[in-house]
Amino acid sequence: MHIVDSHAHVALNWYEPIETLNEQMRRNGVARAVLTQPLGQTDNAYIQACRRREPQRYATIVLVDPADPGAVSHLAQLVEDGASGVRLRPSARSAGADALAIWRAAQDLGIAVSSPGTSADFASDEFADLVAALPGLTIVIEHLGAGNAPDTTDEQRARRRTVFALARFPNVVIKVPGLGEIAPRASDRNAPFPFERAGLDVLDEALAAFGPQRLMWGSDFPIVCSREGYAGALRFCMDAFGHRSEGDRELIFGGVADRVFPSRP
Questions:
Q1: How far does Cα 205 stand from its chain's mean position?
Q2: Three-state SS across the chain?
Q3: How far apart are CA 168 and CA 39, in angstroms?
Q4: Which pTM does this prediction carry?
Q5: Which residues make Cβ contacts (< 8 Å) with residue 211, sequence separation at least 6?
Q6: What share of the chain has pLDDT > 90, as a percent?
Q7: Residues with Cβ within 8 Å of residue 109, at least 6 apart in sequence
Q8: Distance between CA atoms of residues 264 and 179, nearest Å
Q9: CATH H-level, domain 4-260: superfamily
Q10: How far apart are CA 18 and CA 208, in angstroms?
């Protein structure tokens, strides 16, 4: 199977360098990765350099400051340099008369937006209005529509489920993370499958809403290494989708990411 990691972080001054990710990919048979710029760091030089060295292996999701008056031109330069996406929070707005200028720029440049946020952010009327206003823009919801920890209350579970209503917009895609983000760890920590199966209902609901054509797996490397590890993020997630057809799994674990975040020369 052609496997693509749609959400991996690398850096020289935070997280891990590209060589560490390379080794994890090699060990686990991952063909491509989408290098996702860490939040708060708008200097994209490192991930762009990694992409230029191996453009068939890596795509990049860059970060710009939407409030910067030069954000649109900055993004255009990054796309000219090969970026396949830009990372924008649901609340990101541009300076000036057009508050959605940076979102429109992504649409005009033909790249996707990868959006980190809380379930409340994604479930808001404001975000739904934004999505509706930009039907030509692919918007990818990160972390299955919430933070990177399992929901622990009925309110949190219900709010995450409201995010899945965004599947009514055909331009919305969602990222499936390692299971440690969405399911509590099993009480038997030596169990072959170390998560509570009951916590995985949300995964089935996301699949029912979006279908395999709009789901993509992403490890969240290297943060995942403090939980189930890179291999576990892939293997256990594949196990959770083991009841699906080979074609569906090929989409979730590679095909959708290839389509949304293609390699650029």
A1: 18
A2: CCCEEEEECCCCCCCCCHHHHHHHHHHHCCCEEEEECCCCCCCCHHHHHHHHHCCCCEEEEEECCCCCCCHHHHHHHHHHCCCCEEECCCCCCCCCCCCCHHHHHHHHHCCEEEECCCHHHHCCHHHHHHHHHCCCCCEEECHHHCCCCCCCCHHHHHHHHHHHHHHHCCCEEEEECCHHHCCCECCCCCCCCCECHHHHHHHHHHHHHHCHHHEEECCCECHHHHCCHHHHHHHHHHHHCCCCCHHHHHHHHHHHHHHHCCCCC
A3: 28
A4: 0.95
A5: none
A6: 80
A7: 75, 76, 79
A8: 30
A9: Metal-dependent hydrolases (3.20.20.140)
A10: 35
Q: What is the pLDDT of residues 38-73, one digit of tens each?
A: 999 999 999 999 999 999 999 999 999 999 999 999
Residue whose entry in the numeric block shows the structure tokens 């990101």 = 92
State phi, psi for 149 to the nearest 5 degrees. Answer: -145, 150
Residue range 79-100, pLDDT digits in tens: 999 999 999 999 999 988 899 9
Q: Please, which pLDDT band fits residue 30 given cuts at 50, 70 and 90?
A: very high
pLDDT tens-digit series, residues 118-128: 999 999 999 99
Residue type, 225: C
Tokens of 256: 């959708």
